[in-house]
C-alpha cells in the first residue's frame, strides 16, 4: 500500500467544488471538522501528496471515493513484447502506431479547447479507421513522450490532464441496455452510480458532479440505433439535453458513423434532436500521400523504392490496404525473400476490402 496519495490533476476542480457542496464555507472549516492542519487540507485540495489515511478521511468528508480520485501511475509498457509495425485487423490503440489525419485532428481538438465543448461526427466507410481515430483522440494527449514517435505532436489541448475521456463501444452487448450504458459512463467518469441507475438519476448525478471536461466517444453508433431497443428517442434526447443545457459546457460527444448522423437517425426510425447537435463532420478516407509514405517508412526494414511506389499505387493510400501490403512486404524481407512473389499474395489479401478503392471512371 502506498504511504501517501495525491488527487489526480483531472479531479482537482471536482474536489475543490465538493467543499461548498458539503457545506464547508472555507478550507479552514474542513480542517477544523477533520482535525487536520490547514496545510494538510491545502495539500490535499491542490493535488499534493498527503498521508494515505488522511487522504481517505478527507475524501470521505467531501463525499468522494478516495480510490477514484487518487492519482494512479500509468501502467508501464510491456518490455518483453515487440509491437507490430503494421496492424491489419484490430483498431490502432497505441498512438505511436497511428499515422495521418492531421487536418481532422486539428479541427476536432479545436472544438474541445474552449467552452462550451462542441460535438463532432466522424464519417467513413467500414474499415476506414474511424475507431482508430477515436482511440487516438482519447490517448494521444496523455501518452508519455517516450512512448511516441520522435516529433509526434501530443500537445493538442491546454491542461489535457483535466479532460476525462469515455470510449463507448456500442458493439459491446454488455451496454446494450439503458442501465448498462448509463452505469458504464458514470463509472468511466468516476461518478458514483445511483440506485436505481435510471435516466432521471443519471442526469441528476452528471449535472451535479461534472465539474471537469468530459468527452464521450460513441463508436459504432449505428449498432446502438439498429439493435438496442432500450436506447430509444427518450434516451438520446436526454443526452442532448444534458450536453446542451445542464453541464455548463463541460460535455462533448464525438461519434463514428458510416453516414451523416441525421440520415442515420432517419434511416433507423429515430427522431433527430440528438443527432442535429453535431456541427462539425470529419470525413475520412484515403491518407494523403505524405502520410502514407510516413507509415511505409516506419517499417523496421526499409522497403526498396520500387516497392514503395507499387504499394502506394495498389493501395490508393487507403489505410487498411497500406497496412496489409506493408505487412506482406515486411514478412518477405524478414524471411530473406527478394523476389516479387509477395505482390501477388498482397493483392489476394486486399481483395476482400477492394470496396475501399476508387472505381475506374
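-> sequence recovered:
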Amino acid at each position: 500500500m502506498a504511504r501517501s496519495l495525491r488527487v489526480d490533476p483531472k479531479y482537482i476542480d471536482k474536489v475543490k467544488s465538493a467543499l461548498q457542496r458539503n457545506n464547508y464555507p472555507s478550507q479552514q472549516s474542513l480542517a477544523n471538522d477533520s482535525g487536520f492542519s490547514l496545510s494538510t487540507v491545502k495539500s490535499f485540495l491542490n493535488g499534493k501528496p498527503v498521508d494515505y489515511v488522511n487522504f481517505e478521511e478527507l475524501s470521505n468528508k467531501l463525499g468522494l471515493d478516495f480510490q477514484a480520485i487518487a492519482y494512479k501511475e500509468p501502467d508501464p509498457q510491456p518490455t518483453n513484447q515487440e509491437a507490430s509495425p503494421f496492424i491489419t485487423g484490430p483498431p490502432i490503440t497505441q498512438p505511436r502506431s497511428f499515422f495521418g489525419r492531421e487536418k481532422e485532428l486539428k479541427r476536432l481538438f479545436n472544438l474541445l479547447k474552449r467552452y462550451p465543448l462542441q460535438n463532432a461526427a466522424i464519417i467513413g466507410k467500414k474499415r476506414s479507421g474511424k475507431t482508430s481515430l477515436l482511440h487516438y483522440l482519447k490517448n494521444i494527449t496523455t501518452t508519455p513522450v517516450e512512448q511516441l514517435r520522435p516529433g509526434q505532436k501530443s500537445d493538442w489541448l491546454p491542461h489535457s490532464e483535466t479532460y476525462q475521456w469515455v470510449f463507448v463501444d456500442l458493439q459491446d452487448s454488455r451496454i446494450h441496455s439503458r442501465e448498462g450504458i448509463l452505469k458504464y459512463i458514470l463509472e468511466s467518469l468516476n461518478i458514483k452510480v445511483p440506485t436505481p441507475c435510471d435516466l432521471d438519476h443519471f442526469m441528476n448525478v452528471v449535472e451535479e458532479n461534472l465539474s471537469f471536461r468530459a468527452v464521450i466517444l460513441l463508436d459504432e453508433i449505428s449498432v446502438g440505433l439498429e439493435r438496442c431497443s432500450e436506447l430509444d428517442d427518450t434516451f438520446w434526447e436526454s443526452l442532448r439535453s444534458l450536453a446542451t443545457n445542464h453541464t455548463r459546457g463541460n460535455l462533448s460527444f464525438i461519434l463514428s458513423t458510416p453516414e451523416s448522423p441525421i440520415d442515420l437517425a432517419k434511416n433507423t426510425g429515430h427522431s433527430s434532436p440528438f443527432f442535429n447537435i453535431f456541427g462539425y463532420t470529419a470525413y475520412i478516407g484515403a491518407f494523403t500521400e505524405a502520410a502514407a509514405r510516413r507509415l511505409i517508412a516506419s517499417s523496421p526494414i526499409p522497403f526498396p523504392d520500387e516497392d514503395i511506389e507499387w504499394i502506394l499505387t495498389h493501395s490508393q493510400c487507403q489505410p487498411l490496404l497500406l497496412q496489409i501490403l506493408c505487412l506482406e512486404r515486411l514478412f518477405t524481407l524478414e524471411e530473406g525473400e527478394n523476389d516479387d512473389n509477395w505482390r501477388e499474395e498482397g493483392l489476394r489479401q486486399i481483395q476482400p476490402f477492394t470496396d475501399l478503392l476508387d472505381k475506374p471512371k
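The mean pLDDT is 92.
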